[in-house]
């Protein structure tokens, strides 16, 4: 995935009980001066369940 600003997307998918810990770890990495501003971050949540049924690209 790319964006006009040329930053890559880091998209994570994890069980709900692991998301907080994962988010905290990613925040530590994202705050590093060597990667700061180079990525967009997003996490799949419960509202994303069933997205493939929405009729978007890749749906059956």
Main beta sheet: 2 strands, parallel
Number of strands: 2
What shape does the CA trace take?
Answer: flat
Helix coverage percent of residues?
Answer: 25-40%
Contiguous helical run count: 1
How would you classify the helix and strand content by structural class?
A: alpha+beta
Structural summary, described in words:
- With 60 residues, the protein is an alpha+beta fold.
- It has one helix and two strands; from the N terminus they run βαβ.
- It has one helix at 16-30; strands spanning 8-12, 39-43.
- It has a two-stranded parallel sheet.
- Helix 1 (16-30) links the parallel strand 1 and strand 2 (39-43).
- The longest helix has 15 residues, at 16-30.
- The mean pLDDT is 78.
């Amino acid at each position: 995935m790319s964006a006009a600003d040329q930053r890559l997307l880091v998209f994570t998918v994890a069980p709900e009980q692991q998301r907080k810990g994962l988010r905290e770890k990613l925040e530590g990495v994202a705050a590093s001066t060597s990667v700061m501003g180079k990525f967009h971050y997003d996490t799949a949540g419960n509202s994303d369940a069933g997205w493939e049924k929405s009729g978007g690209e890749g749906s059956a």
